[in-house]
Write a structure and sequence with these properties.
Elements (H helix, E strand, L loop, with lengths): L1 H12 L4 E8 L4 E7 L2 H14 L6 H10 L4 E9 L11 H17 L3 E2 L1
Parallel strand pairs: 2-4
Antiparallel strand pairs: 1-2, 1-3
Length: about 120
């Protein structure tokens, strides 16, 4: 029973990788830049929603996915962000939003459009 408690505590202490990721089209200069506190989880969830036709937050991206197919898109991490607070309740939303704006500006300067 102690082992179960120990594993539960270890799980609570885990800090998933957070940062910014991109979904970009190979056939045109369009992309979608998103942030996540759990990059792998959100990226996997996003792909599952797109494959299932249910990405309701970005209908234009979903339409392009349906029209061009999954093979037209690349999904990759642009930047990860380190945890800088020992407080487990610290809200990283503003930090992630700022990081997203920086990446959007970089892509916009290169002529990319956004879904």
């Amino acid at each position: 029973m102690d082992r179960k408690k120990e594993l539960k505590e270890q799980y609570k202490q885990m800090k998933p990788q957070m940062g910014v990721f991109i979904i970009r089209s190979r056939s045109c200069q369009r992309c979608c830049i998103e942030t996540a506190r759990d990059l792998k989880g959100v990226m996997n969830g996003t792909v599952a929603k797109l494959k299932g036709g249910g990405h309701l937050l970005n209908r234009r991206l979903q339409e392009a996915w349906n029209e061009n197919g999954a093979e037209d898109f690349v999904i990759e991490i642009l930047e990860t962000m380190e945890y800088h607070s020992e407080d487990p309740q610290y809200d990283y939303s503003e930090d992630l939003a700022l990081l997203k704006m920086i990446w959007q500006d970089r892509f916009r300067e290169e002529g990319w459009e956004f879904y």
